[in-house]
Write a structure and sequence with these properties.
alpha+beta, 2 helices
């Protein structure tokens, strides 16, 4: 009986050691330290105005949410925006054939950043030869992002994604 108890205890101890090794972080940082490091990286990217937001879902105005299966993104590179986003919704006045939609590269006219307790709020204005857009971006410390795009000739659309 004592022999069986010892064997059971040895197996339990071995399992605990294996589980402890499997769940430890290879970088040696605690969860709070990783969170803080991510928040600092997000802050630096936003201040430098060099970041990419990869979107996973689109929520058109007056429409059902759409999970995106292809890679779509919004890049800010200093004073330039590279918008590679799909559009679902109503278009009021667009060029024949649909035009560029939200797939274009353009210069940023206005760029405003503010910070509240939970997130960074960015408002940027962009014009191209088809339309005038305003991008409202909320970026949280963990890198999650919400992008609302408004324009003169199309209905609003919101995207959800992560900062690269």
């Amino acid at each position: 009986m004592k022999d069986m108890f010892k064997k059971t205890m040895m197996v339990m101890a071995a399992i605990l050691v294996i589980v402890a090794c499997a769940t430890s972080d290879p970088s040696g940082l605690s969860k709070a330290e990783r969170r803080q490091q991510t928040a600092l990286l997000v802050q630096k990217a936003l201040l430098d105005r060099h970041y990419t937001i990869n979107v996973q879902s689109a929520h058109p105005y007056k429409g059902a949410p759409i999970n995106l299966t292809s890679s779509y993104s919004l890049q800010v590179k200093g004073d330039t925006i590279v918008s590679y986003l799909p559009f679902f919704g109503r278009a009021y006045s667009i060029p024949y054939g649909g035009g560029k939609g939200l797939n274009f590269t353009g210069l940023i006219n206005s760029y405003q950043t503010s910070r509240n307790k939970k997130e960074y709020n960015i408002k940027m204005g962009v014009d191209n030869d088809e339309d005038q857009y305003v991008y409202y971006i909320d970026v949280y410390d963990n890198g999650r992002a919400v992008v609302l795009v408004t324009s003169k000739n199309r209905s609003n659309i919101t995207f959800y994604g992560d900062m690269e």
